[in-house]
Amino acid sequence: MENVVRLSPGKRADQNALEVLADLLQTEMLGVNEAILSGMQSHVHLIPELSGHLINSGGKRIRPLLTIASAHLCDYRGGREINLAAAIEFVHTATLLHDDVVDESDLRRGKATANTVWGNQASVLVGDYLFSRSFQMIAQDGSMEVVEVMANTSTALSEGEVLQLSAANNVDTSEETYLKVIDAKTAALFAAATRIGGIVADASDSEKDALESYGRNLGVAFQLVDDALDYSATQATLGKAVGDDFREGKITLPAILAYRRGSEEDRNFWKRTLSDLDQQDDDLEKAIMLMTDQGTLADTIGRAQHYGSVAKDALGIFPDGELRQALVGVVDFCVNRAY
Questions:
Q1: Cα–Cα distance, 261 to 49 (Å, whole number)
Q2: Residue 50: what pLDDT?
Q3: What is the pTM of this model?
Q4: Measured CA distances, 107 to 97, 125, 224, 234, 257 (Å)
Q5: Percentage of residues of the chain with pLDDT beyond 90
Q6: How many CB atoms lie within 10 A of CB 339?
Q7: CATH label of the domain that carries residue 210
Q8: Residue 1 — very low, low, confident or very high, per pLDDT cuts 50/70/90?
Q9: Lowest mean pLDDT among 148-157, 242-251, 295-304
Q10: What is the pLDDT of residues 276-292, one digit of tens each?
């Protein structure tokens, strides 16, 4: 697939859609980065040291980008979106710090995770600080509508984590439950990022709903691709060890479909490796082979393409232009990571 973004004069032909969007919002994103650096400062030296380890590790800043882009799509240039975009990045960073502790992960974006370097207690507590700091910044904005969106999102994030934990190692997990997990864990924050852009712009309800739909469906597509990549990417591309989901017994859509489609022998394999975590050296290779043979990785990407199409259609109520085209291209970029 090709991105549909039309490059403006001065844009490199080899730029992906996310880089195009970042270029369009370069000045605003510099402001977001300044707000992030300012916001994570503390007289407790471990807080900026540990949080900076992850925040400065090469993340795409996709959620803050979406907040800025959504506000600008509604013709807002007032500046409130800058601090709110930074607050959303703090929430995202806090969830990553907590996730890595829960998952006992060793790598994040190709670097040692904070819990590996500083330990679990420090990672959890600094994650708590970033959550608190984000809500301090949100409160300073003064919009009760923004507060309500982020309070609901914070609740959804926690519910998603607990639901995922309850489904761990359960090969009988349904696709419906899996979708509830990723909607809460991933898509909810994407949806908040885009809706808040509409809120600060004082957009109409239909525009805010459209932006939220774009963000939510993009988030689902993004996570579906991530879960497929865990079985098909290289470590350099993924930024973490390939097969982490498998080793942890995490039940994602590729595994759910493979279990449903497998023979009795295949199902016994999935029960042994994912439910009992009785894994041998060549089991990951066999898991990838089964998924490939049964088309579960391709079908996971197919579902991501569907949600991506819904996200792009949601932007249809906005006038065509460079910014809308960039947002459409971001969907293709997120889905095309699988190729």
A1: 47
A2: 94
A3: 0.91
A4: 11, 19, 20, 13, 27
A5: 81
A6: 8
A7: 1.10.600.10
A8: very low
A9: 242-251
A10: 999 999 999 999 999 99
Query: Exposed e or buried b for every residue in 291-329, given b needs 16+ CB within 10 A?
Result: beebebbebbbebbbebbebbbebbeebeeeebbbbbbb
What whole-number percentage of the chain has pLDDT above 70? 92
- Number of domains observed in the structure of the chain: 1
- Asked, for residue 3, whether it belongs to a domain, the answer is no
3 has pLDDT over 50: no
Asked if pLDDT for residue 9 goes beyond 50, the answer is no
Measured at the CA of 195, the angle between CA 194 and CA 200, to 5 degrees, comes to: 105
Report the C-alpha gap between 245 and 255 in whole angstroms.
Answer: 10
Condensed to tens digits (0 to 9), the pLDDT of residues 131-144 reads 999 999 999 999 99
With cut-offs at 50, 70 and 90, classify the pLDDT of residue 338: low
- The tokens describing 13, both together, are 């032909």
Query: What is the SS3 string spanning the chain?
Result: CCCCCCCCCCCCCCCCHHHHHHHHCHHHHHHHHHHHHHHCCCCCCHHHHHHHHHHCCCCCCHHHHHHHHHHHHCCCCCCHHHHHHHHHHHHHHHHHHHHHHHHCCCEECCEECHHHHHCHHHHHHHHHHHHHHHHHHHHHHCCHHHHHHHHHHHHHHHHHHHHHHHHCCCCCCCHHHHHHHHHHHHHHHHHHHHHHHHHHCCCCHHHHHHHHHHHHHHHHHHHHHHHHHCCCCCHHHHCCCCCHHHHHCCCCHHHHHHHHHCCHHHHHHHHHHHHCCCCCCCHHHHHHHHHHHHCHHHHHHHHHHHHHHHHHHHHHHCCCCHHHHHHHHHHHHHHHCCC
For 233, the domain range is 17-336
Q: Is 305 within a domain? A: yes
Mean pLDDT taken over the chain: 91
201 in any annotated domain? yes
β-strand partners of 108: 111
In a domain, 306, yes or no: yes
